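Board work, copied verbatim: Sporulation related protein
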Amino acid sequence: MVEKHIKHLLYNHDCVIIPDFGGLITRYVPARINPVKHTLVPPSKKIAFNEKLVLNDGLLISTIAYANNTSKEEARQLVLSFVHEVRSRLEKEQRFELTDIGVFKYNHEQKLVFEYTEGDNLLESSFGLPEIVARPVRPEEPAVLRTLIKERQPTEPTPANKPFKVRLKRAYHVAAGLALTGLVGAALYMVSLQTDYNLSSLNPISLISGDKQTADENTAIASITQQEATFDQSTAMDALEAPETGIAEDAANWDAASTSTSDQTTQYAANEFVSDNEEPVEEIAVPAPVTTTVSGKDGRFYIITGGYARMLNAEFNRQEIAEFGHEAKVLEPGKGSRLFKVSVADFATAEEAQAAMNTYRKSFGENIWVYNN
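↓ predict structure ↓
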């Protein structure tokens, strides 16, 4: 009866302690594939035994008392009797089987060990999920496929012979086209034999384009010549008729420009003098950049979430963790290591790091560990 209650408690609890004997601990096992048997196994619970968990937490005794409607003292006596029976069976037969859970026995060093027997799936979320066998898909025989394709194709009617008149008309058109092509070719050949005719010179397009190009070239040459003559003549007339007053006007304009430039320089110097007397602007302190990479030994204890062979992948993971408000860092590989480790937090002592592990396991899972750099 105690065995039945132990199995029932393992469905809903991760640990069931048998007073003065030990504790049964459950562990989640994900779905897995058997490549040899081609089977898919659903998620389940695997049970382990720890003989150091002998302190009574009252779970088993309270369950038995409530189920049998008895007092806790009577339930405790039932558990003690069950433990006494287990120990006596182990001394006599060297083994004791807990139904649908596992087998207790002594090894060659006379230490109590537990072997889990995979019976009923103790994970409630996988209740009713069987083990699935994947059968290979066999292709159909080629001969059968050819037969099916041939049967499905519609039968095409045999084309009937065309009448004689239609075939004769088609042959007449082909012969007429060939005869016309031969006559045109012969005429062109006879013309090409005449020495007085040049076929290329008879092309009207080339004649028109040639004449137009020649006329354009002549017009351009005449225009350039006329412009050069006009430029030379106007230059000579300007040199002869330039009065002396023009030179004086240019000198006056140059002096005015120099005076304006000097005034602007004096104004700029005055402005500079005023700006020097102004109160200095306070400089804004720029915060120091946050260090995201740790190289070398520093003696601190880091909580590591994963390791990567490439720095780029580690930096991507660090940025994802930093978006949730954690001070993530990347630890460069040390001597004898090739992995870039990503940490979510660091502490000065190992006790502080171990104390914070439970908090970070809620966000990053059970695979995180403490690393002493």
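Residues 44 and 121 are 6 Å apart (CA to CA).
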